[in-house]
Amino acid sequence: MTAFMSRLKPVVIGALALTLAACTNTFRSDVATFHELPMPKGEKVSIMPMSEDRQDSLEFRQYAAILGNHLRLNGYDQAGDAKPDLIVGFDVMINDGREKLDTRPSLASPRRFYWRSYWHYGYFWDPYDPFYRHNTEVVARTVYTATLVMEVRKPDGTLLFEGRAETETRTKAVPEVVPLLAEALFVDFPGPSGVTRHIKIDLDEAGR
């Protein structure tokens, strides 16, 4: 039995290595934007939640700071106490989740072993399975859709930009996903108008 298990170990380890190699540490988001924004010229922006009841929220102040940093990198300045040239409104939402069926390799699939002989300094017998293939199993998961929406308006209310970034997540850890949604929303900002883009962010390259 010990010799039998020792011959199985390389097979199991190899399968695990293939499974891990197939996994990529990537954040994916669908981003759609609609805009009539002119090229930025250092306009001063004021950033606030769209919902009045969230304007005193410490959580949403943190999200506003994240958006403000991206806007600064794209040529805008914070208005501070000055009169803003543009008003940026945003909101963050996450739904109640839905069940999603996924498939994954099954390492616990039943195996049928047959015997074959080798010639190597005499005969010995070794088990093998000529019909083995990597079986899969269906797994039910609860996934949530997290969405970041952002609008840019003139002080008179004229709408210049509206966009959203959304992703599927297995947890309701909103503070962890908002920075990634913001990063996806600002890829090639403001992006092509009226187009949904599938954004991928390599978290390993980003040092996360």
TrEMBL record:
Keywords: Signal
Residue ranges of every copy of the DUF4136 domain listed in the record: 52-191
Signal peptide: 1-24
Tagged with keyword Signal: yes
Pfam families in UniProt: DUF4136 (PF13590)
Annotated protein name in UniProt: DUF4136 domain-containing protein
Organism: Kordiimonas lacus
